[in-house]
């Protein structure tokens, strides 16, 4: 069971969230941001996620969020911002500060559970990707050019974590590659659009539907590819699928209108967290990224990535 820190200055809201999530997760409660920050500092490894009210006395949710994202101990801790301030400007501010998950009060128990599960799944995936790729560094250092095929969720997990070990910041690169490759499979090759994915996640059938479509004999030879080319300073990666493309421009940034959805963050997260930029080509069934491997003064670059 995941352990969540729930932060809200209204006791009734803490009670409602506790009732919705009890039995599924371990819960700890704080009545304002200052108490929450003290609890986090006292046990930085104790929590798997934070459900954070925006407007509170002493220290508000935005200040807690800024502190979390500025502290290396908490940078991968998913934060679900909840607030009655559901206007586009407030949502955009929260998203820009690092709250990739947002709930506007009042919300349904189903919406809360869906967002919480999505946030926890994302975090577990990131950690799994790093563990899988850790042992392969020596072999990967010998690769300058390669082409890989992938079609399943397991393929994506293994390949993204493995290739990320060639980069200075493997955890964020693994996440970014995984999201781009997942889009190539689920949308490009299997034709699951945004609305359908939302329904499948809400019904708890997303992975089941992916596997069902992959098992279709008509799709047996359907795969996507990822190609890499490395030189002294850069690693170029290109992902192609067999689909007809999509309107990728809508997903380069996290639109406040989609902030309350349980999915739809992948491309924006890849662009803003893993890569400084990325480039979709043609109709959207090909995407390229370039990662800087060394800085101009020598050594390893940990900051920017360029297309």
UniProtKB/TrEMBL annotation:
GO terms for biological process: phosphorelay signal transduction system. Residues 3-120 form the Response regulatory domain. The modification 4-aspartylphosphate is found at residue 53. The keyword Phosphoprotein applies. It comes from the Bacteria. PROSITE patterns: RESPONSE_REGULATORY. InterPro entries: Bact_response_regulator, CheY-like_superfamily, HATPase_C_sf, HATPase_dom, Sig_transdc_resp-reg_receiver. Keywords: Phosphoprotein. It holds the Pfam family HATPase_c_2. This is Response regulator. It comes from Thermochromatium tepidum ATCC 43061.
């Amino acid at each position: 069971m995941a352990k969540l820190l729930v932060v809200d200055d209204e006791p009734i809201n803490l009670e409602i969230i506790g009732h919705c999530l009890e039995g599924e997760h371990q819960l700890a409660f704080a009545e304002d941001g200052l108490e929450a920050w003290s609890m986090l500092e006292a046990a930085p490894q104790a929590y798997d996620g934070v459900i954070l009210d925006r407007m509170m006395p002493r220290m508000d949710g935005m200040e807690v969020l800024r502190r979390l994202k500025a502290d290396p101990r908490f940078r991968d801790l998913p934060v679900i911002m909840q607030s009655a301030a559901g206007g586009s400007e407030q949502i955009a501010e929260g998203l820009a500060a690092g709250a990739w998950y947002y709930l506007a009060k009042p919300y349904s128990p189903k919406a809360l559970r869906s967002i919480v599960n999505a946030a926890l799944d994302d975090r577990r995936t990131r950690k799994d990707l790093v563990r899988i790729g850790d042992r392969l560094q020596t072999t990967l250092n010998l690769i300058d050019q390669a082409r890989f095929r992938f079609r399943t969720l397991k393929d994506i997990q293994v390949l993204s974590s493995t290739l990320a070990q060639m980069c200075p910041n493997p955890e964020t690169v693994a996440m970014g590659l995984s999201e781009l490759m997942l889009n190539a499979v689920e949308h490009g090759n299997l034709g699951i659009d945004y609305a359908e994915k939302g329904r499948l996640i809400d019904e708890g059938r997303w992975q089941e539907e992916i596997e069902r479509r992959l098992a279709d004999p008509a799709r047996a030879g359907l795969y996507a590819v990822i190609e890499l080319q490395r030189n002294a300073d850069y690693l170029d990666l290109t992902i192609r699928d067999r689909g007809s493309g999509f309107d990728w421009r809508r997903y380069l940034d996290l639109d406040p209108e989609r902030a309350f959805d349980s999915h739809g963050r992948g491309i924006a997260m890849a662009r803003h967290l893993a890569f400084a930029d990325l480039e979709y080509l043609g109709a959207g069934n090909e995407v390229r990224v370039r990662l800087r491997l060394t800085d101009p003064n020598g050594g390893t670059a940990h900051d920017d990535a360029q297309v």
